[in-house]
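Entry for the shared binder. Reason: the reviewer on the internal report wants the predicted structure included alongside the sequence.
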Amino acid sequence: MRKNFRVIKELVRLRFQNLMMFRLGFFGPFFVDGSLFLVQLLVFDAVYANVDEIGGWQRGEMILYIGTFSLLNAVNMVVYFFGVGGIPDKIKSGEMDLYLTKPVSPLLRLSLESINPGSLPLVVMSLIIIAYGAGSAGVRWNPKLFAGYLFWVLLMLVLYYDLEVLIRSLSFFVVSTAKMQKLEEACISLSMQLPGTVYYGIYKLIFCFLLPYGIMATLPVKYLAGECTLPAALYGIGITVLFSALTALVWKTGIRHYNSVSS
């Protein structure tokens, strides 16, 4: 564990060092991602301005939902999105060989070697939206409530990470995962607009179990709203454990069957 922490620290240091060699490449994403977030916020405001209730949630809960999903997406973009996103290309090109020969977890290095501080403004803006939504929904923060919300956000970040790695790990077994990644983008785009409370029947099966993007921001907001029942909490924890195990299995199986370009 201590060795992994040292590796993470060094990866972050090297990443910032490389970014600062090109100042525009470092500061440019701050402006681009910040502007994108503002445009997205205006779109959401236009959609929900005249809507009183969606899936049983009032406007305050919906603002919380938008802020929470944006926070999950922003942290994902900052920490591991660009690293995990490169897995398919590294498998195809044979560059994965270099990661397998290093004395550190290849998935850990892949995940954290392309940290993107340019998306940090999205994290800050998402927190502002969450604070505004909490005020609109009448949420009274206290240490217990904050700790519970933080727990659910971190747990859903693990689920988000699992799904990203799982989809891209399929590159070990298929020629291209482009269609799966397009499906992922469509699911994320839909889930950023609709909470899991609106899904029923086959849609609930798809977006809350098979591709559980629908629960990612829903469960943290349910906790804040006092609607997170014990069965819902157990389900959220269980689905995260299930996908973590499935992702680990697919990744390890893929590594075992990986054929180096030099072999």
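Summary line for the report: The first helix runs from residue 2 to 20.
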